[in-house]
Amino acid sequence: MVTKPPETPKSEMMVRMRKVTKAFGENVVLRELDLDVAPGEKVVIIGPSGSGKTTILRVAMTLERPDSGTVEIDGRHLYHQEKNGELVTANEKHIRSVRSDVSMVFQHFNLFPHMTALENVTLAPIKVLGKSKEEAEESAVRLLESVGLGDKTTHRPSELSGGQKQRVAIARSLAIDPKVMCFDEVTSALDPELVGEVLGVLRKLAEEGDMTMMLVTHEMGFASEMADRVVMFDHGRILEDGPPSQIFKEPAHDRTKSFLKAVLQH
Amino acid sequence: MNQLADRPKWNWDVVWEHLPAIWGGMVVIIQATLAGITIAMILGLFLALGRRSERRWISWPFAAFIDFIRSTPLLIQLFFVFFALPEMGIVLGARTSLILGLGVHYATYASEAYRAGIDAVDKGQWEAATALNLGTGTTWQKVVLPQAIPKVIPALGNFLVAMIKDAPLGSSIGVAGVLFVARSIGSQTFFYVETMTMAGILFLVVSVPAALFVQFLERKYGYEAA
Predict the structure, then answer these.
(1) Residues A191-233: tens digit of each pLDDT
(2) Are strands A180-184 and A212-216 parallel, antiparallel or unpaired?
(3) Sign of the CA dihedral A53, A177, A130, A118?
(4) Which residues, in sequence order, are CB contacts of B210 under 8 Å at separation 6+?
């Protein structure tokens, strides 16, 4: 007889947020927000500026600490740890350990300007994952090839176009082998003709399937094509949430309709 | 009186006779400056990091120390190190006192330059470090300081040149630097014009290449931001 493994209270969700609240001074950006993202799910977050969509990614990345609420990444609390059966505020060591499952790509790339593309990609694997230089470089070259930059390994960021910089940044994040990737308006700072090459890389990553992806974007065509789910933010809350066909074609709220109209006209 | 009236306008013999001794004094100044700037660069970074601490009980004493040193004259600090510290049981030689005084004095200025350089590193660089889960040490060593220090080099270079010119203050605590040597030769031979001119030219010989060296460093470490 096979014994059933003990029931674990571990969340099935890759990202699980409960009652997350964040204010900057008087300005409440997130209001008791709940959000679940399943493993491998691609969630696109849309909404007007100031709706909290970027902040939710930054909370998942620990760039903003929530005022209250809980965040779990792959079943582990990010901002809390258990002590004598109670949840207490986590220390930095705990946060860092849970954070290793998450990475983020930024609107303005934030590449390290004093390093080559290869050095940008190998820094964390060597310093954080403890890989040897040879091993890290081997997989970095493979990652750079996969984003179409196999011939740019020795280039500095200043020698790369915006689209190339962003692709290096994606490779750099992938190099730490995260389970969750956050993309914060990663094509917004690019010249229009360079948007396609970055979206192409994201599409390829999405098609590979395993990566859990949370994307804030204004590229609605791209979103409707690759998202499993679209979440509409407004005033720090989720206004509606559903498959792209539903949100883009039959939004339930007028607010969503007018937002989409404004974005698509642009 | 007659002797003075007959005195030639410029005596090359005096120049050649005393040049080695005055150059010897210049070497003392160069050594003190190099040792002083080394202390200033290292201690300055330490002071800058202490002052940037988020913990008030750490940052406040650093800030107080920096402001205190910056708002008192170097000469008084040299007197303090050389004449007052021995009363507290710390006896340092004249040269060591000069090096320590220059080093600490300029460290406080360097710390402000470092602080500005660190603040000038884009916030996105810190965020990228978090997104890659880099530790604090790696973030400083590999990401922040390599970008901050090149920005600080011009300021550090100016401190180097300023320090060369401040180092002769050591003569007031008996360091046989170029000024000290030139004055004592002048007072023995009465060829003040020659000796002091030599001292001035030797300063130029040292400080102009130093300034050029700083320009070279600026070019070498300059790069475009990403």
Answers:
(1) 999 999 999 999 999 999 899 999 999 999 999 999 999 999 9
(2) parallel
(3) negative
(4) B157, B160, B161, B164
Q: Which of A17, A18, A53, A59 is nearest to A231 (CA)?
A: A53
Specify the higher pLDDT residue, B162 or B1: B162
- By C-alpha distance, which of A185, A254, A213, A179 is closest to A46? A185
Exposed (0-12), middle (13-18) or buried (19+): which is A70, by Cβ within 10 Å? Answer: middle
Residue B205 CB contacts under 8 Å (≥ 6 apart), including other chains: none
Q: Is B226 close to A173, i.e. CB distance below 8 A?
A: no
DSSP B113-174: HHHHHHHTS-HHHHHHHHHTT--HHHIIIIIIHHHHHHHHHHHHHHHHHHHHHHGGGGGGGT
Find where tokens 């920096």 sit. B66
Confidence of residue B177 (pLDDT cuts 50, 70, 90): confident
Interface check B120 vs A, CB under 8 A? no
**Per the confidence metrics, is the pTM higher than 0.80?**
yes
- A160 C-beta neighbours (distance < 10 Å), count: 19
Angle between helix A162-174 and helix A133-146 axes, rounded to 10 deg: 130
Nearest chain A CA: its distance from B138 CA (Å) = 7
Residues A211 and A154: their CA atoms lie apart, in Å, by 28
List Cβ neighbours of A209 (8 Å cut-off, separation of 6 or more). A40
The owner of tokens 């350089």 is B117
CA distances from A113 to A33, A61, A148, A227, B224 (A): 36, 22, 20, 32, 8
Residue by residue, DSSP assigns A120-147 as HHHHHHHHTS---HHHHHHHHHHHHHHT
Q: Tell me the nearest-neighbour CA distance from B139 into chain A, angstroms.
A: 10
**Angstrom distance (rounded) from CA A107 to CA A112:** 14
- Asked if residue B37 lies in contact with residue B160, where contact means CB atoms within 8 angstroms, the answer is yes
Query: The tokens of A241 are what?
Result: 């949430």
CB of A100 less than 8 A from some CB of B: yes
Residues of chain A found within 8 Å of residue B222, distances taken between Cβ atoms = none
Q: Does B127 touch chain A (CB under 8 A)?
A: yes
Q: Which candidate from B127, B133, B225 shows the least CB-CB separation from A176?
A: B133
**Sequence letter at residue A84:** N
Which of A110, A173, A185 has the most B C-beta neighbours within 10 Å, making it the best mutation to test the interface with B? A110
